Amino acid sequence: MPELPEMENYRLVLCRQLKGRPITEVDINREKSINKKTEIFEAHLQGAVITDIRRRAKHLIFQLNTGNALLLHLMLGGWMYIGNDEDNPDRTKQVILSFGERKLYFIGLRLGFLHLLNGKELKEKLEELGPEPFDPSFTLETFQKRFGTKRGTLKSILIDQKFMAGIGNCYSDEICWQARLQPARKANELKPDEVITLYHAIIPVLENGIKFGGYIVNPIYAGDAKTGGYNNHLLVYDREDQPCLRCGTEIRKIEISSRKSFSCPNCQV
């Protein structure tokens, strides 16, 4: 599932290619992927201009000049591709937005969604999400206070979208490896200096994820050489039986609350 770096990579690409462009055509091939009747959804989007594209947690928000917004969550298996009638993946497209000859294809939206919302609805939809890791207000003191109320495993806390928005399976393991902590450790077992180390591991890991295009490999457009590049820079995630990049010990895979998790049994405590 795309996480914060993957969605930020999408945001940056889509801003460069689609921001300020009017929607000239809307094709809905699966009504369950949207939240309104097809004819209503199409009528609201026809001619609307994307004035901005923002990210909140694992969502993208396409702000429209009408005052409405499109809220996207790709969930498991969802992705997007910018192309045209001659250049597009040979996959079922649930939604297609056209911008003249250029088209944005939404693929794999079986669990994901693209919802048309007004300002109030958008706020309500996102209000339960926790703070953004890159928000200046998400300070060490804020993290310590929020973390101090938790009793679960590090893995379950880091992927809890109400605790902190945007992190999932991959980057929770990457953060724990960077902090030299086992993802199965209980929060109330951590020493104060370990909590500080955990906090300071978050931003560098996410920044690297964004820098190298995230770990989801599907390209966003023809010739896209960046997306998925973080696969070549993974610290621990999906590296079972490979040597730890820090100490050489074989990485192991375990399950934590039915989620796969990767860690080094030697240098993570």
From TrEMBL:
InterPro entries: FPG_cat, FPG_Glyclase, FPG_N, H2TH_FPG, Ribosomal_uS13-like_H2TH, Znf_DNA_glyclase/AP_lyase, Znf_FPG/IleRS. PROSITE patterns: FPG_CAT, ZF_FPG_2. Residues 235-269 form the FPG-type domain. Residues 2-100 form the Formamidopyrimidine-DNA glycosylase catalytic domain. It comes from the Bacteria. Its EC number is 3.2.2.23, 4.2.99.18. Keywords: DNA damage, DNA repair, DNA-binding, Glycosidase, Hydrolase, Lyase, Metal-binding, Multifunctional enzyme, Zinc, Zinc-finger. Pfam families: Fapy_DNA_glyco, H2TH, zf-FPG_IleRS. It catalyses: 2'-deoxyribonucleotide-(2'-deoxyribose 5'-phosphate)-2'-deoxyribonucleotide-DNA = a 3'-end 2'-deoxyribonucleotide-(2,3-dehydro-2,3-deoxyribose 5'-phosphate)-DNA + a 5'-end 5'-phospho-2'-deoxyribonucleoside-DNA + H(+); Hydrolysis of DNA containing ring-opened 7-methylguanine residues, releasing 2,6-diamino-4-hydroxy-5-(N-methyl)formamidopyrimidine. One of its GO terms (molecular function) is class I DNA-(apurinic or apyrimidinic site) endonuclease activity. Its cofactor is Zn(2+). Monomer. PANTHER family: FORMAMIDOPYRIMIDINE-DNA GLYCOSYLASE (PTHR22993:SF9). Belongs to the FPG family. This is Formamidopyrimidine-DNA glycosylase. The lineage of its organism: Bacteria, Bacillati, Bacillota, Bacilli, Bacillales. The gene is mutM.
